[in-house]
Design brief:
alpha/beta, 2-enoyl-CoA Hydratase, Chain A, domain 1, 3 domains, eight-stranded mixed beta sheet, elongated
Length: 546
């Protein structure tokens, strides 16, 4: 009978039903193993599969024998799987987007990384480099191949170097981590790609859980090393169920596709003269900027961008919920979006830390900024934060360093950067996203070195003097335009209408990005340098009159 036992829930599942679901248990959702040929069939468009010949000679550098000579193990693995090695490489298309794909097969000696696998992965990288085509690496491995000893170990360095060349060439790389991925594969090409996608429940780690438990002599956390655990701890970007994998990968590949052009002379709806803006008390602007129910970064992402994919984590320790980062297309133009996220309800505000990022949040932003620089994507950053989170853990984790690193990174990022202050722009925590070619502000936005309450508490010893402080600090959009801190103000005419707000922002961003995209990187960087160099610099005319 055609039945299979689910390893997740122990249910007997009819084989045809399991195959129809691409190996996903219909009872519990457990994602079972797929062979490399099955992976390619699942991911690539029908008829687009073009095998890449990466045949390499057999190698037995150690003359290794345990209970069976290594060459005999290789022959047995080939007989059982029908494969030459533990990886299959091909060119193909995913929803029309070209890609070079290397898919590992755990059935072949546990997907172990030996010289042949390392050579195949490297040749896949070199093919992607030569053709300037995005690379997708699908991992499933127990680690380095012990039978090849230190030669297998060297494959970690070899494949990592191949990926570095793709970084230098600006070629998008995506890792699809499947269950399990451990050891030398986890500590090399599987985690070096620009974006790490995982299937639900997939395990990823350097050392295995039993080794770790024995070493520490304790119990491991629930879900340790699973995709869900790693997402929470900032190691992976996206968890995608198998049924949605093609769509997820297609959206990511679309972010590296050529941009559609927009005219730089389109009306942008921005006010660039203080004479065209009404006067208002700055404290009124503060209250308006803090109003619950204003569109958030995620609201704008969903309304402004097609195929937005949120990326998670700093690849070190955490995923900060107060910082949003991802890729999408603004009317056909690929962009990287960054922004602080407050929330629309009390519960979400608490979960998002009231929009105050941790060091992990700024490091996540930095990671996506570097990706934008690599791929040549313009950056749109949306700022609505009272500031960086002031906490003990934040200081222990290097809050100052994280902010400083972003300031330096943005000052030299060779792509257009447009910042929009959509609500509060609080101190260095806001500036860490706002070293931009153009800084825009919504009509009710504010931007300041400190909150009015903080200023009043320090200078007047009484937070109730916040309105007086707001006026003294000149935090409102009209004042900011007069100071040259912002380049344009987008009036807010439809309070509470999120769709109208997004349409107005789209109208402002399209020509702004088009105008900046027409500049060469050197000119872009020179202008950005001059913009910030000018703040506080002596006025040459005044200097000459002294």
């Amino acid at each position: 009978m055609d039945w299979a036992l689910c390893r997740g829930c122990g249910t007997l599942v009819y084989g045809k039903r399991l195959r129809r679901g691409a190996g996903v248990c219909p009872e519990c959702g457990h994602h079972g193993a797929l062979s490399a040929p099955q992976r390619l069939d699942l991911l690539l468009d029908s008829g687009s599969h073009d095998p890449i010949d990466v045949a390499v000679p057999d190698t037995d550098p150690l003359g290794f024998v345990d209970s069976t000579p290594y060459p005999d193990r290789l022959r047995d693995a080939r007989r059982r799987t029908g494969l030459d090695e533990a990886v299959v490489c091909a060119r193909g298309r995913i929803d029309g987007h070209p890609a070079v794909v290397a898919a590992m097969d755990f059935r072949f000696l546990g997907g172990s990384l030996g010289a042949a696998v390392g050579e195949a992965i490297t040749r896949a990288c070199e093919t992607a480099l030569a053709e300037h085509t995005p690379l997708l690496l699908v991992s499933a491995s127990g680690g380095a191949r012990m039978q090849e000893g230190v030669v297998a170990l060297m494959q970690m360095a070899k494949t990592s170097a191949a990926l570095r060349r793709l970084d230098e060439a600006g070629v998008l790389t995506i890792s699809l981590v499947t269950d399990p991925t451990y050891g030398g594969v986890a500590a090399s090409f599987a985690t070096l790609c620009d974006v790490i996608v995982t299937e639900p429940g997939a395990r990823l780690g350097f050392a295995g859980p039993r080794v770790i438990a024995q070493t520490i002599g304790g119990t491991l956390p629930a879900g340790f090393q699973t995709a869900e655990y790693l997402l929470e701890h900032g190691i992976v970007d996206v968890i995608s169920p198998r049924a949605e994998l093609r769509a997820t990968l297609a959206r990511l590949l679309g972010a590296a596709a050529p941009a559609a052009g927009h005219g730089p002379h389109e009306p942008d709806g921005l006010v660039r003269s203080t004479a065209d803006l009404p006067e208002r008390h700055p404290w009124d602007a503060v209250r308006a900027a803090r109003r619950l129910g204003r569109p958030t970064t995620l609201d704008y992402a969903r309304m402004l961008l097609d195929d937005f994919v949120e990326l998670h984590g700093d690849r070190m320790s955490a995923d900060c919920p107060a910082m949003i980062a991802g890729l999408g297309r603004l009317d056909g133009r690929p962009v990287a979006l960054l922004g602080t996220q407050k929330g629309a309800t009390a519960a979400e505000l608490a979960r998002r830390n009231f929009g105050m990022p941790s060091p992990a949040g700024y490091r996540k932003a930095a990671r996506v900024l570097r990706l934008a620089g690599k791929l040549g994507l313009p950056v749109v950053s949306l700022v609505d934060t009272a500031g960086a989170f002031p906490g003990v853990a934040a200081e222990e984790q290097g809050q100052s360093v994280a902010i400083a690193e972003n300031l330096r990174l943005l000052s030299g990022l060779p792509v257009p950067v447009v910042t929009v202050v959509t609500g509060e722009g609080g101190s260095g925590g806001a500036l860490a996203l706002a070293v931009a070619d153009e800084v825009l502000a919504l009509g009710d936005a504010v931007y300041s070195v400190i909150t009015p309450e903080g200023c009043a508490s320090i200078l007047w010893k009484d937070a109730s003097h916040a309105p007086r402080a707001a006026e003294a600090l000149r935090v409102d959009a009209r004042s900011l335009l007069g100071l040259g801190v912002v380049d344009g103000v987008l009036p807010e005419r439809a309070h509470g209408d999120h769709a109208a707000a997004a349409d107005a922002l789209r109208t402002a961003l399209r020509p702004t990005l088009a105008r900046l995209a027409a500049l060469e990187p050197a000119e872009l960087l020179a202008r950005r340098h001059d913009r910030f160099r000018g703040f506080g610099a002596p006025d040459p005319e005044l200097e000459g009159s002294r």
